[in-house]
């Protein structure tokens, strides 16, 4: 049994800390594949010297191209490694919602723990049980087992105009408090939203959902992504 377990499990390649850095790269990298040490430091709340040391290790693993005083360039290998960590997180969230009946506001912290399990077959089986979902409970795309990810053409709700009808597709922040805020307003994924008013003073937005009106703050509309 022990030999079978060894054969079916991945060799430990990354530490928990490395995986957290990889996730940060995934979320921060720009369209040119670049991210700065300062951005990573602020995102992770880690001091700059520590980030520099870790990025030197990443450069040795060919995950980034590191040059002093220049933005990091995330390599294709680095992008793939980062996407695979995110894949584990998002698959776990989907499993918790679809198979264990957790609310979408209660899954992030659990997924943060399970994403560090180093067994590919565990997550591949989870993927199979879920029938290979393309998106997580928050509308974010789930990378496949090769690290590929679906591109989405979404925009912030805050950029929409009065009279437009859009579909709520994703959130930029899966914070528990924010998701509970959306639950209270019955604003769920794939809901049709009609914009009826935007206040000139504070840019708060009145929307219509199934005949009911709700008022959203500018802060909320910045975090909601929609498609037309």
UniProtKB/TrEMBL annotation:
Keywords from the named record: Activator, Cytoplasm, DNA-binding, Manganese, Repressor, Transcription, Transcription regulation
Pfam (any one): Fe_dep_repress
Origin superkingdom: Bacteria
Any single Gene Ontology cellular-component annotation: cytoplasm
GO terms of molecular function: DNA binding; DNA-binding transcription factor activity; protein dimerization activity; transition metal ion binding
Main location as per UniProt: cytoplasm
InterPro entries according to UniProt: DtxR_MntR_Metal-Reg, Fe-transptr_FeoA-like, Fe_dep_repressor, Fe_dep_repressor_sf, FeoA_core_dom, HTH_DTXR, Iron_dep_repressor, WH-like_DNA-bd_sf
SUPFAM superfamilies linked to this entry: Iron-dependent repressor protein, dimerization domain, Winged helix' DNA-binding domain
Subcellular location per the Swiss-Prot or TrEMBL entry: Cytoplasm
PROSITE patterns on file: HTH_DTXR
Keyword Repressor (UniProt): yes
Gene3D superfamilies xrefs: 2.30.30.90, Iron dependent repressor, metal binding and dimerisation domain, Winged helix-like DNA-binding domain superfamily/Winged helix DNA-binding domain
Keyword Manganese in annotation: yes
Residue span(s) of domain HTH dtxR-type: 14-75
Family: Belongs to the DtxR/MntR family.
PANTHER family: IRON (METAL) DEPENDENT REPRESSOR, DTXR FAMILY, TRANSCRIPTIONAL REGULATOR MNTR
Function: In the presence of manganese, represses expression of mntH and mntS. Up-regulates expression of mntP.
Assembly, per entry: Homodimer.
Listed name of the protein: Transcriptional regulator MntR
Organism lineage: Bacteria, Pseudomonadati, Bacteroidota, Flavobacteriia, Flavobacteriales
